[in-house]
Amino acid sequence: MLSLSSRITPEHLFYIRNHFPYLIVDMETWGLRIEGCVNRPICLRYQDLLHMNQVSIPVTLECAGEKRAMFQPKVRGEQWELGASSHAIWTGVRLVDVLFAAGIQMNAIEVTFEGMDKGTRTDMPGVFTFTRSLPVKEALNPDILIALYMNGKPLPFRHGYPARLIVPGWYGMASVKWLHRIKAINQPFIGPFQAIDYVYKNKSSSSTHATPVTTIRLNSTIAQPSDQAVLARGEHKLVGTAISGEYPVVLVEISADNGMTWQRASWLDPQESYSWRRWCLKWDLTKPGTYDICVRATDAAGNVQPELADWNLNGYGYNAIQKIRVYVD
Asked: Per residue in 250-294, pLDDT tens?
């Protein structure tokens, strides 16, 4: 379940998704290397990063597998329901400042980000580090951070201490934790966490024809009440969130009759780029019975949440209109 008592998710409730076991970081030897297609390869120690210009950006991170359990037919993978989405204020160094300090070259087409976490996979031999890449055009976005702080405190170990990437608007797999190497390259990156995992594909498609998972799809969630809740007659408050990684969400609507009629919800938060936005709706229940509640979001480009999610083999990007059922005594 989501924690929505404040816009910021408390650290102990912030979702965690790892691909490999936790590691031990030796801060005596740790450094962030920037290399590859650069004119001045550099290694920045933790204190070097702390002394650089610091920027704070509120960003919601969401696992690409959020709501995977809702796909029909079922798909493989961690069966997330609600809760793999959280919000924090991240503080650190702009990635673009580091890339320019190293003198990124014109022939670079992608930038890779390597975490310190490593392990084996079930589908191929060898030991792998969690490594992802971004096209240079995306990597030069001034809002991408090498984060050192989360909500004003040093980055918690479980969330990537001493440094992690924060890629606003993208699903969480792009925000590599325990970052220790950044490399500009002049050819496409084809690591397993880029070409095999985190791609949209159906059963008949191969990895070479899959579509990469990138920005967060337009989505909304009912956090309160929960599905199958039993409510007393009287006034209740429906509460939830809405988010999109591409265009701002401008409208959330609620239906208490399985989509036949809709009411506009009110916002609890102002609009912020890269952030979820909490909504609420007062609901006066006078009649007992069974109610099917739906929520849908609309963005600034006029896109509306679909009735059905785009089914894919790995269960990424579920964003169908959410429906719950409650009972009123």
From this structure: 999 999 999 999 999 999 999 999 999 999 999 999 999 999 999
Identify the DSSP state of 207.
Answer: G
Question: Are 264 and 252 spatial neighbours (Cβ–Cβ below 8 Å)?
Answer: yes
CA–CA separation, 30 and 242 (whole Å)? 38
**225 vs 328: CA distance, rounded Å:** 12
Q: What does the pLDDT look like over 89-116, one tens digit per residue?
A: 999 999 999 999 999 999 999 999 999 9
Give every CB contact of residue 106 below 8 A, 6+ residues apart in sequence: none
Could you tell me where the DSSP H helices lie in 128-171?
136-139
CA distance 118 to 111: 19
Query: In 160-276, which ranges are E strands?
Result: 164-166, 179-185, 199-200, 211-212, 219-224, 230-231, 234-243, 249-255, 263-264, 266-267
- State the average pLDDT over residues 22-47: 97
**CA-CA distance, 152 to 25, in Å (whole number)?**
21
Distance (Å, rounded) from C-alpha 100 to C-alpha 107? 14
Classify 158 as helix, strand or coil: helix
Domains of the chain in start order, with CATH, are 11-212 (3.90.420.10), 219-328 (2.60.40.650)
Does residue 166 sit in helix, strand or coil? strand
Cis peptide preceding 225, ω within 30 of 0: yes
Angle at 81 between CA 18 and CA 245, to 5 degrees: 75
0.90 exceeded by pTM: yes
